[in-house]
Design goal:
With about 550 residues, the protein is an alpha/beta fold. It is built from 16 helices and 19 strands. It is globular, with a radius of gyration of 23 Å. The two termini are about 25 Å apart.
């Protein structure tokens, strides 16, 4: 039986608002994505994952949804989306939507009715409501990811409602049969239109503890920099989210999506984003008991250029052999990969090596727009920020806007993103790295990215094969991808100094021409230049 299309697939993550503006209003849109489908197809990827496309007041830039069945007005129309979907399918590209089913905007009609319909209204229990304490304070100690108590008081009901993020993002109550079915019906709506699957935002947060048990604090002697970076990290989120029973909700979602497999476009795919207590809430389930796949923030939050950020995560994955992972180094929520690991003056060789590593790892791979160009993080001033998190923690944390600046397409006005005033400024750090400037250069990062993706797609071992890490000391990472009679050795140098990798199997290996940096095979050793990556095919008996 053939593997489903998503197993080993590469999805290109499009942050729509910053991708390409087709109408000059300064905001990327769906016709803009359609205009760049040839580019996306030229990368060799299997499909695209679109950031939320639904109507939103943009308190959290689309992750506060006001209508799950509509299209954001400055992104285009429902007809624009259908045209994009049809054009993508005509090119053999899958389309995956970003769905936020754990919460809504506070202007969503569901919440408005829950608020105004009284405690006995038909949607009274669709959100998580609780009485204040006698002194008026929040019902318990739950903290928001975006700062402060995770509760907001509403005098219309004389109750607080729970919000894990902004107060404008009230939490849906998945313990309510009505709310749960309404959320699941969102999936049916878009699957019927022909979408190929979903990325589920904060997939560990569907259930809350019904008794509203307080979260325990992280002990003082266990607190590290990450804990102190946000107040919400100072407690274990065991009761506001990440419940063990969350797996039941994931299974319910996956079975709902599976019911559409074989209809129109074949297999459908649903994967989740997980943070906090990942194993507890179902991040590593098998495709028969949870979602098809999932990714965590373990590698997304890593900042130290050390092999352990990869090897330790795959040690964890090895304890869940039935789980098929999704792999990501970068997205719209974290600093861009090369800057996160290399700082402001990161060498371009580092970007190539990290891209090669991302594509070589076992899993379904997510590439964030611009990662194929080696884009660094943008530096913005406070008055340029649009992200509420950046404003909240300035100047300690600039928020997420530095990875959300518009895509650099050309050397022209606004780097070809828009003819108007861009919603975020183009990054000065991206000058010289545009698609136009790299497209015809065979030595560019873009050319290497295309070659790396093509190499993976042509190799069953690199696409769906097992992974076995070699016992090797830092700063090297080495592993074998193997499937049937094909075995590929992948070696990476994490340092700015030349390194040598020795292994007996290399004496019967062929050094492949695809590489980042320089590599030389001598007997059972391969030498690598700084920040190099190389691949060798093992001879089979």
């Amino acid at each position: 039986m053939a593997d489903p299309w998503w197993k080993g697939a590469i999805l290109y993550h499009v942050y729509v608002r910053s991708f390409f503006d087709s109408d000059g209003d300064g905001h990327g849109d769906l016709p803009g994505v359609m205009a760049k489908l040839d580019y996306i197809q030229s990368l060799g990827v299997d499909g695209l994952w679109l950031s939320p496309i639904h109507p939103s007041p943009n308190r959290d830039w689309g992750y506060d949804i006001a209508d799950f069945e509509g299209v954001q007005h400055d992104y285009g129309s429902p007809e624009d989306f259908q045209a994009l979907l049809d054009e993508a399918h005509a090119r053999g590209l899958k389309v995956v939507l970003d769905e936020v089913l754990s919460h809504t905007s506070d202007v969503h009609p569901w919440f408005v009715e829950s608020l105004t319909g009284g405690r006995d209204g038909p949607k009274a229990d669709w959100y998580v409501w609780a009485d204040p304490k006698l002194d008026g304070t929040a019902p318990n100690n739950w903290l928001s990811v975006f700062g402060g108590p995770a509760w907001a008081y509403q005098p219309a009901r004389r109750q607080h409602y729970h919000h894990k993020f902004l107060r404008q993002q009230p939490k849906l109550n998945w313990r309510s049969p009505g709310a749960r079915e309404a959320a699941l019906s969102v999936l049916d709506h878009w699957l019927e239109k022909g979408v190929d699957g979903f990325r589920l935002d904060v997939a560990g947060t569907y259930l809350h503890d019904a008794a509203l048990t307080p979260n325990p604090p992280v002990p003082l002697d266990q607190r590290r920099g990450l804990h102190w970076s946000h107040a919400g990290n100072l407690q274990f989120h065991l009761n506001d989210s990440n419940l063990e029973e969350n797996v039941e909700m994931l299974d319910l979602i996956r079975r709902r999506v599976d019911a559409w497999s074989g209809v129109n476009q074949g297999d459908r795919f649903v994967f989740g984003e997980f943070s906090e207590e990942e194993a507890r809430c179902g991040a590593y389930c098998t495709p028969t008991e949870g979602l098809h796949s999932g990714y965590t923030f373990v590698m997304l939050l890593a900042r130290k250029l050390d092999p352990s950020f990869v090897t330790q995560h795959y040690d964890t994955l090895a304890t869940y052999p039935g789980h098929w992972p999704t792999v990501s180094f970068s997205n719209h929520d974290v600093p861009r990969t090369v800057s996160r690991f290399g700082g402001e003056d990161a060498p371009p060789e580092l970007a190539r090596m990290l891209f090669a590593l991302l594509v070589a790892l076992k899993g379904t791979t997510l590439i964030y727009q611009g990662e194929e160009l080696g884009l660094p993080q943008a530096s913005l001033t406070r008055d340029q920020l649009r992200d509420p998190v950046g404003d909240l923690y300035w100047p300690y944390d600039g928020g997420r806007d530095g990875c959300r600046t518009p895509m650099p397409w050309t050397t022209g006005l606004n780097m070809g993103f828009t003819d108007g005033e861009p919603w975020l400024p183009l990054a000065v750090e991206h000058r010289g790295l545009s698609v136009e400037e790299q497209a015809d250069d065979p030595d560019s990062m873009l050319a290497f990215a295309r070659e790396m993706i093509a190499f993976r797609k042509a190799s069953p071992a690199m696409t769906v094969g097992d992974i076995a890490f070699a016992r090797v000391d830092a700063p090297l990472v080495a592993f074998v991808r193997e499937y049937d009679d094909e075995a590929v050795v992948c070696v990476f140098n994490f340092s700015d100094q030349p390194q040598v990798f020795d292994h007996p199997t290399l004496s019967v290996a062929d050094l492949l021409p695809l590489r980042s940096g320089e590599a030389e095979l001598r007997g059972d050793s391969v030498g690598l230049s700084p920040y190099a990556a190389c691949f060798l095919r093992l001879a089979q008996d």
